[in-house]
C-alpha cells in the first residue's frame, strides 16, 4: 500500500499535488469558486467568522484567517477547540462558526461545534471524512478530498484544508463584492499554480536529506515566519516535534526580539521562511538579528541570503501563496528526513494517535 515509498507520510507528501487538484475539481473555474455544498443564502448576513480546530487543523484555520480577512473582508477569529469550550465564549448569531478536522471525530472540536449550534450560530465543517460525527453535526460541510491519510503526522490533509479556506475566501469575496472579477481570476490562477508546486522535486528531496544531518542535535528549533507564514512556521514546528521528538517552536519572526532571542547561539536552529512576495525585508532583518547572535540558520527563500548557514532555494514565484505551498513541502520533507535519521517510527510516532476522540 505504500506504493514504493518508505512511509505513508512520504507517500502522502508526494500525493499532495493530486489531492489539491481533486479538492478544486468542480469547484473552481474561470472567475468563480462555487461550492454546491453551500446552499444559496447560507452565507448571507454573516458579519464575522470564528474558526475552531485542534493541532494541524488549527494551523490551517489560522492560515485561512489571513485569507478570509484579506479577500472577504470579514473579521475572522481562530480558536483552539479545547480552549474555546471552557472560556464561556461570546457568540453572536451573525457569526459563522467553522470547524476544521481531518478525522471528523476530534472530541474537543465536536463539542465546540455543538456549543456553537446551541448558541444559534450557522455552522460549517471543513472535513476529510464524509459521514463523520462532525459532518453529521454541522449545518453544512465542505469535504477536503485528501483521501485516506494514514501517517499520524498530517500533511496532505493540511494542504487541502488551506486550499478549501482559500477557495472559501474567494467564494465569500464574490458574494460580498470585496474583490474585483480580475482579482478573483488572478487568485484562481495562483491556486492552480500552487497545486502544481507541491509536486515534489527529487533533487530538492535529496538536498533536504543531506541537510538534515546538521540538524539532529542542539538546544532546539525555532521555525519563524510572518503573516500567513507564521501559521506555516507553527505547522513546520509541529511536524518536526511529532516525529523527531526534538523541541521545536513556531514563532512570528517579529516577536523574537521580545524574549526568545535570548536563546540564540549556534546550538539554536532557526528555520526561517523568507518568501519574496510578502514582507521579505522585514523578515530578513529579523533573521539577520538572529544570525548576528550566532544562531544556526536554515533559510528557505528564493533570494540569496548571506546570513544563512544553509539555504534551501525555492524559485521566484508570482504570489506569496505559491511560495506558501512550496515551502510547506520543504518543511514536511525536512521533518521526515530528520525523523528517519533519528531512527524513529515516522508513521506511528510515540504517544500519538491519528484521531483524538477523548478530551
Ligand atoms: O482529525 P483532526 O484534524 O481534528 O485532528 C486534529 C489534530 O489532532 C491533528 O491535526 C494532529 O495535530 C496531527 N497529528 C498533526 O499532525
Automatic annotation (TrEMBL):
Subcellular location: Cytoplasm
Catalytic residues identified in the record: 354
Entry EC number(s): 2.6.1.16
EC primary class: transferase
Protein's UniProt keywords contain Lyase: no
Annotated catalysed reactions: D-fructose 6-phosphate + L-glutamine = D-glucosamine 6-phosphate + L-glutamate
A GO cellular component annotation in the UniProt record: cytosol
GO MF annotation list: carbohydrate derivative binding; glutamine-fructose-6-phosphate transaminase (isomerizing) activity
Gene Ontology annotations of biological process type: carbohydrate metabolic process; fructose 6-phosphate metabolic process; protein N-linked glycosylation; UDP-N-acetylglucosamine metabolic process
SIS domain residues: 38-178, 211-349
Membrane spanning residue stretches: none
Keyword annotations of the record: Aminotransferase, Cytoplasm, Glutamine amidotransferase, Repeat, Transferase
Record keyword Cell membrane present: no
Main localization (coarse): cytoplasm
Subunit structure: Homodimer.
Function recorded in the entry: Catalyzes the first step in hexosamine metabolism, converting fructose-6P into glucosamine-6P using glutamine as a nitrogen source.
Name of the protein in question: Glutamine--fructose-6-phosphate aminotransferase [isomerizing]
Gene, per the UniProt record: GLMS
Residues of the full protein shown: 237 to 595 of 595
Amino acid at each position: 500500500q505504500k506504493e514504493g515509498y518508505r512511509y505513508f507520510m512520504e507517500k502522502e507528501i508526494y500525493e499532495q499535488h493530486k489531492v489539491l487538484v481533486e479538492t478544486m475539481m468542480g469547484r473552481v473555474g474561470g472567475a468563480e469558486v462555487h461550492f454546491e455544498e453551500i446552499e444559496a443564502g447560507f452565507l448571507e448576513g454573516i458579519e464575522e467568522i470564528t474558526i475552531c480546530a485542534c493541532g494541524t487543523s488549527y494551523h490551517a484555520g489560522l492560515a485561512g484567517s489571513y485569507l478570509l480577512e484579506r479577500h472577504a473582508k470579514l473579521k475572522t477569529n481562530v480558536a483552539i477547540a479545547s480552549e474555546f469550550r471552557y472560556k464561556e465564549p461570546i457568540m453572536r448569531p451573525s457569526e459563522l462558526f467553522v470547524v476544521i478536522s481531518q478525522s471528523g471525530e476530534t472530541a474537543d472540536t465536536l463539542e465546540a461545534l455543538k456549543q456553537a449550534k446551541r448558541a444559534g450560530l450557522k455552522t460549517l465543517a471543513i472535513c476529510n471524512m464524509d459521514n463523520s460525527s462532525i459532518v453529521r453535526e454541522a449545518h453544512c460541510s465542505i469535504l477536503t478530498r485528501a483521501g485516506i491519510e494514514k501517517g499520524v503526522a498530517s500533511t496532505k490533509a493540511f494542504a487541502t484544508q488551506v486550499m478549501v479556506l482559500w477557495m472559501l475566501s474567494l467564494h465569500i469575496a464574490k458574494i460580498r463584492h470585496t474583490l474585483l472579477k480580475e482579482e478573483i481570476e488572478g487568485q484562481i490562477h495562483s491556486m492552480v499554480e500552487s497545486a502544481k508546486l507541491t509536486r515534489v522535486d527529487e533533487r530538492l528531496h535529496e538536498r533536504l536529506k543531506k541537510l538534515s544531518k546538521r540538524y539532529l542535535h542542539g538546544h532546539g528549533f525555532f521555525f519563524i515566519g510572518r503573516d500567513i507564514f507564521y501559521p506555516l512556521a507553527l505547522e513546520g514546528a509541529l511536524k518536526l516535534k511529532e516525529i523527531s521528538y526534538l523541541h521545536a517552536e513556531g514563532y512570528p519572526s517579529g516577536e523574537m526580539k521580545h524574549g526568545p532571542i535570548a536563546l540564540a547561539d549556534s546550538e539554536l536552529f532557526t528555520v526561517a521562511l523568507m518568501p519574496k512576495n510578502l514582507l521579505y525585508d522585514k523578515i530578513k532583518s529579523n533573521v539577520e538579528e538572529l544570525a548576528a547572535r550566532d544562531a544556526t540558520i536554515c533559510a528557505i527563500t528564493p533570494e540569496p541570503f548571506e546570513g544563512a548557514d544553509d539555504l534551501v532555494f525555492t524559485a521566484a514565484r508570482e504570489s506569496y501563496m505559491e511560495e506558501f505551498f512550496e515551502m510547506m513541502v520543504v518543511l514536511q520533507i525536512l521533518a521526515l528526513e530528520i525523523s528517519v535519521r533519528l531512527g524513529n517510527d515516522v508513521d506511528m510516532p510515540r504517544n500519538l494517535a491519528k484521531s483524538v476522540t477523548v478530551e
